[in-house]
Amino acid sequence: MFDFILGLPMHALVVHGLVVLVPLLAVLAALFALVPRWRGPLRWATATGAVLAAGLAWVGAESGEALLVRISQVRATSTDFELVQAHVDAGYRVRLAATVFMAIVLAAAWLLGPRSREDVTTRPLEVILVVLVVLASLSLVVTIVLAGHAGSAAVWSDLG
What we know:
Layout lengths: L3 E2 L2 E2 H25 L4 H36 L6 H31 L12 H33 L4
Antiparallel strand pairs: 1-2
């Protein structure tokens, strides 16, 4: 089920979607959290993007498992499985980071609303959620970059 799409490995397609989506989504989530007047317009896009990113992370992990089985069968002698295992481990961290990111963003979308111009008070829950959204955004981007690097090393290490 998580093996191929139109003859191409699903994993490569899904992870490239994550590499494009996650940094854009991280910026969107940070703007949603940090700029109260933008919360209304950005709320649903941010929440939907977080769910999509988490879903892609789970599909990426599952399709990676399917690809690993295929590589084990087809390229067992020419594959550096230590590098592949490093990528697998990084992929699990992406899945965890994306799930945590989704939970935090959904909580923020639910609990943070746009502020009126007259309301200049900052509530403690708002500060906590803003910090969590920004930290989760940064964490997810770093995790994606590290997983991508590990995957590239596993694929291209034999080129020198």
